[in-house]
TrEMBL record:
PANTHER family in the cross-refs: ACYL-COA DEHYDROGENASE, ACYL-COA DEHYDROGENASE FADE34
Names of the cofactor(s): FAD
Domain Acyl-CoA oxidase/dehydrogenase middle span(s) in chain numbering: 137-224
Source species: Mycolicibacterium chitae
A Pfam family the protein falls into: Acyl-CoA_dh_M
Protein name per the record: Acyl-CoA dehydrogenase
High-level lineage: Bacteria, Bacillati, Actinomycetota, Actinomycetes, Mycobacteriales
A GO MF term: flavin adenine dinucleotide binding
């Protein structure tokens, strides 16, 4: 473990910073072809070990945590510096899998609402490349109704005793700490009885299992808590004010998923599924390069990608200048999910049977499209489903009336659940 060193205050312009980064990257980071990068496999521990190693290099070189405050190990610079760094590091291997959820969601939330000690300990350790942070929110009983969690934290003497289960925790097997939402008061309406905890994932009382997905990946985990003991120092924010913390987390998640977080370093595709399918090449390989219908399909997908890029800049700037509320980050997240689905659907439509049957030769490579199709909807679920995103846009951005909820204002222990 390295010691956290407070970076000196920067007096450099963005251009000077970028020039210094350019020289440092060339000397210190492995060069890659940005159009053909070495992808990380989130399900493999070695990808995480590699990411930590790269992060440690960035930290040693003074280019880690660009937008995090200096007192917590960052550089205390604004987004313009991070964007300039992102431009410079395109051709170098970066620890991209540390961005989300570790930096863009968990560390960002701790920065907003964590205790001074949590900021000094956890944010610094993540920036140094020593620790990974994950999210433990969704439960087997459902994830959309996050305020309805039933994992419980009961007070016993000076400890909190946690019992319950969480699921769909991205990369938790590689994590060190998780932000975990639990119910601490069952006698008040659902949003008022929650508390967020920062849980050390190797603590006794936690059983973690990997989940096998339909595409064969094992990136997600489920955790079972049986009498896990936590102290008051694990509480993030205030007791029974966990909804405030969870709301910050969701806010950061929406921005991160849409690609608009200043806490993400590097912008390349993290894995092969994030690379836009090459529709033109697919059309040529399948002998449809001159087909007007196929050209139309490919053109639509390309235009959507270009609009997405513009939307990220536009919404980001509008939130920053106050002309759109912070919840408008949901627009980016929704458009991102829909763009991904359109791109993969278009690829499969062009590939046809070669996307699902091995047709040999160059067409054999198209089987990836079929596998990718199986997970094309992850963007419409992770970070809240697209239906929930539309609810947020309707209610929080456009100001429509809130949808009916039978449990609004009702003490949680009186809310009907399941077959009760
Ligand atoms: C890639 C990915 C990464 C994830 N990472 C994590 C993680 O790290 N940590 C974590 O805790 N969870 C994670 N999740 C879980 C994710 O947060 C949940 O899948 C999501 O919140 C939806 O919950 P659910 O799957 O339980 O669906 P449910 O809540 O059971 O919903 C089922 C369906 O009903 C719809 N629905 C529900 N309520 C409403 C409503 N009020 N209005 C309209 N439609 C509604 C939903 O949109 C959905 O289509 C991840 C999921 C994915 C796909």
């Amino acid at each position: 473990m390295t010691e956290t060193v407070t970076a000196p205050e920067t007096t450099e312009s963005v251009a000077e910073f970028a020039a210094r980064a350019r020289a440092w990257l060339a000397e210190n980071m492995p060069r890659i072809d940005p159009d053909n990068p070495p992808f990380s496999v989130r399900a493999d521990q070695q990808s995480w070990d590699r990411a930590k190693e790269l992060q440690q290099r960035l930290y040693a070189g003074g280019f880690a945590g660009i937008c995090f405050p200096r007192e917590y190990g960052g550089l205390g610079l604004d987004f313009a510096y991070q964007k300039a760094f992102n431009d410079e590091c395109r051709c170098y291997e970066m620890p991209l899998i540390l961005n989300t959820p570790s930096f863009t969601i968990c560390a960002a939330t701790i920065l907003d609402v964590g205790s001074e000690q949590q900021k000094r300990d956890r944010i610094s350790a993540a920036i140094r490349g020593d620790e990974i942070l994950v999210q433990l929110l969704s439960e087997p009983s459902g994830g959309s109704d996050l305020a309805g969690v039933i994992t419980r934290a009961d007070r016993k003497d000076d400890k909190w005793i946690i019992n319950g289960a969480k699921t769909w925790s991205t990369s938790a097997f590689a994590g060190d700490y998780g932000l975990m939402l639990a119910r601490t008061d069952w006698t008040v309406p659902k949003h008022q009885g929650l508390t967020m905890f920062l849980v050390p994932l190797n603590a006794p009382g936690i059983t973690m299992r990997r989940i096998k997905e339909v595409n064969g990946n094992e990136e997600f985990c489920e955790e079972f808590f049986d009498g896990l003991e936590l102290g008051d120092d694990a509480v993030v924010g205030d007791v029974n004010d966990g909804w405030t913390v969870a709301s910050r987390q969701l806010h950061h998640e929406r921005r991160a998923v849409g690609g608009g977080s200043e806490f993400a370093s590097g912008t390349g595709a993290e894995n092969a599924n994030e690379m836009p399918p090459d529709h033109v090449r697919l059309a040529e390989l399948t002998g449809q390069g001159d087909d007007a219908r196929v050209q139309d399909l490919a053109g639509r997908a390309l235009v959507r990608r270009l609009v997405k890029k513009q939307l990220i800049d536009h919404v980001g700037a509008a939130i920053a200048n106050g002309s759109l509320p912070p919840n408008a980050g949901t627009l980016i997240r929704l458009f991102h999910a829909e763009t991904t689905e359109l791109e993969v659907d278009t690829a499969l439509a062009i590939a046809g049977t070669a996307g699902v049957v091995d047709e040999g030769g160059e067409l054999a490579g198209m089987l990836d499209i079929g596998v990718r199709y199986l997970s094309r909807q992850t963007g419409s679920l992770g970070g809240g489903s697209s239906e929930m995103a539309r609810n947020v846009i309707g209610e929080r951005v456009l100001g429509f009336p809130r949808e009916f909820a039978a449990d609004r204002g009702v003490p949680f222990n009186e809310v009907k659940r399941g077959r009760s």
